[in-house]
Design a protein that fits this description.
alpha/beta, three-stranded parallel beta sheet, two-stranded antiparallel ribbon, 9 helices, 7 strands, about 35% helix, binds S-adenosyl-L-homocysteine
Length: about 220
């Protein structure tokens, strides 16, 4: 699963260039028996299995420099671009990303290690691995020298500009009878900037008014 999809594109190239790295620990290596069990039934009853504290504790203790430990969970605050900026602000930072399976993990592990819970949205995944990849991808792409196009490339993105992005166009200038907005072909930077800002404001107001209130 790792680096999985993170081995492609700008984030994959950053991995090859050593801008970030990732050590994968298989929790099953810390299983309590030869069957590789890492989970057990819930105290108090109910459907679904829970990942055991003793197994996770041993797995976490095997990490020399865990840094901040993050457990991906629907119960955490939802990751947003502001948080992404904060997580990636220190390029030397180390994070331990704990990926849950089954119903989740024993609460005592969260309490014992002071683990930060983090969600990637209001829906339920079957495992935390995809959430961890969302975290890594979004954090790595804002790090220095990852995107081509310099600082502008990341700073011009939706959420970074205080709203959603304006419509994008490239060649051909006419496609199936649809023309690119004239202003973009004018070469007039002031007008282009104004048009983009106005489009961005309109789209944000229509689709995500909550982003405007947040400002
Ligand atoms: N019983 C849990 C859901 C477990 S889903 C509940 O009701 O809250 C199994 C695992 O997938 C979780 O342990 C977590 O690591 C991961 N996961 C599921 N949905 C997620 C989300 N929205 N954000 C981050 N991780 C999630």
């Amino acid at each position: 699963m790792f680096p999985g999809t993170l081995s492609g594109g700008v984030v994959g190239r950053a991995l090859e260039r050593g801008i970030w790295s990732c050590d994968v620990i298989n929790i099953r290596d810390f299983a309590i028996n030869n069957y590789g069990s890492v989970d057990d039934t819930q105290f108090g009853g109910g459907a679904g299995m829970v990942m055991r504290a003793d197994v996770l504790g041993a797995a976490l203790d095997s990490i020399q420099n865990p840094g901040k430990i993050i457990y991906f969970s629907p119960r955490g605050p939802t990751l947003n671009q502001h948080m992404v900026r904060e997580f990636s602000a220190n390029s030397d930072a180390t994070y331990t990303l704990l990926c849950g399976r089954y119903e989740g993990i024993d609460q005592r592990v969260i309490d014992e290690y002071g683990i930060l819970e983090l969600s990637i949205g209001d829906y339920i995944l079957s495992g935390g691995e995809i959430a961890a990849q969302v975290f890594i991808d979004s954090c790595v792409r804002v790090m220095d020298n990852v995107l081509g196009g310099g600082v502008d490339a990341a700073a011009n993105e939706s959420f970074e500009i205080g709203g959603l992005e304006w419509p994008l166009y490239t060649r051909p200038s006419v496609w199936r009878g649809r023309s690119v907005p004239e202003v973009l072909l004018s070469g007039h930077h002031g007008n282009i900037e104004r048009w983009r800002k106005q489009q961005s404001d309109e789209i944000t107001k229509e689709r995500r008014p909550d982003l405007i209130k947040e400002k």
